[in-house]
Design a protein that fits this description.
By secondary structure, this protein is mainly α. Helices cover 68% and strands 0% of the residues. It is built from nine helices and no strands.
């Protein structure tokens, strides 16, 4: 009788594992994410997962980087698309703000932020790279608005920092479900803030960028 060949424990593609993390966070929250449960979802042992990702912190950070990569593609499409600078700024803000209570991407962000207190320099640098991408794109968009006369002359770096700080604060409220700060209400608040702080007089009459 011929020997039965041993089953090879072949790891699934990395992206499948990261997608499974996001799906678990969306369905059951971070409390429902365990290495054993994730292993069952992707047909790997928890030990095998730790072999590839080393720690749960690293797994969460890699999942966040993967999710941010997808969001980054959407953001670049929005910022490079048609419309006035103000219209594209509104689209940037809409992409930034969580979809709603327990938004999985923002839930993951909050957990990574919380764990960053004990993170090493490499992890902190990777988190900063995510933040820098959003900040850099916003600075460029505001600078275009100033150049085109849609926005008043401002220090675009400082304006972007303040705008993102407000977005971060509101986004935390949306994610944790603080009453009175749902997504629609936050978007209204952000539109009002931009109206009050950025547009130059006559900006509404400026035609869209070609």
């Amino acid at each position: 009788m011929p020997d039965t060949p041993r089953r090879r424990n072949i790891a699934p593609p990395r992206e499948d594992v990261l997608a499974a993390v996001m799906a678990t966070v969306a369905e059951r929250g971070l409390d429902g994410l365990t290495m054993a449960g994730l292993g069952r979802a992707v047909h790997m042992s928890s030990g095998h997962l730790l072999y590839y990702f080393r720690t749960k912190d690293e797994l969460l950070l890699q999942t966040l980087e993967w999710s941010e990569g997808r969001l980054g593609a959407e953001r670049r499409a929005v910022l490079g698309g048609p419309g006035t600078v103000r219209e594209r700024l509104d689209a940037y803000i809409a992409l930034y703000v969580p979809a709603g209570h327990r938004d999985p991407h923002w839930t993951l962000w909050l957990e990574v932020w919380n764990r960053s207190r004990n993170a090493d320099d490499d992890a902190r640098s990777r988190q900063a790279a995510i933040e820098d991408a959003w900040h850099r794109d916003l600075v460029e968009l505001l600078a275009e608005g100033v150049t085109r006369g849609e926005f008043r002359a401002v220090d675009t770096g400082r304006a972007a920092t303040r705008l993102r700080a407000l977005l971060d604060g509101f986004s935390v409220h949306v994610t944790v479900g603080i009453p009175g700060t749902g997504r629609a209400q936050v978007l209204d608040q952000m539109r009002a803030y931009v109206d009050e702080t950025l547009p130059a007089s006559g900006a509404a009459d400026i035609p869209p960028a070609s």
